[in-house]
Amino acid sequence: MADFFWYFFLYSFVGFLFEVVYARATHSPKQDRKCLYLLPLCPVYGLGAVLILLLPPAVRDNPLLLLPAAAVLCTAAEYLMGLFYEKAARVPFWDYSHLPHNLGGR
Predict the structure, then answer these.
(1) Among 4, 7, 47, 57, which one is least packed by beta carbons within 10 Å?
(2) pLDDT tens-digit map of 35-71
(3) For residues 85 and 91, is the Cβ–Cβ distance under 8 A?
(4) DSSP 94
(5) Measured between alpha carbons, how far is residue 29 from residues 21, 22, 33, 60 in Å?
(6) Comparing C-alpha atoms, which of 93, 95, 80 is closest to residue 47?
């Protein structure tokens, strides 16, 4: 179980780095990616990675099953993290209310 704790932090940090590099490479106006207060972590990436790693080996070893399962798990992770940030931390990170098929702006 301790492995998943470290996987969470590793993938959260790597996700943070990818976001920063992408924002700088695309000259995004939002280049300050403060994802978890003072720590350079984006928990949504860590949660998504851990959920994928928790899939049974039969799913993880079959690309035809892994792709849809990972898509559903990562979508759920992003939705739940967005909901958590809005309700617990009062920080809205995503606002998709202007797009069709959104769930409460998420």
Answers:
(1) 57
(2) 656 688 888 899 999 999 999 999 999 999 999 999 9
(3) yes
(4) -
(5) 13, 12, 11, 37
(6) 80
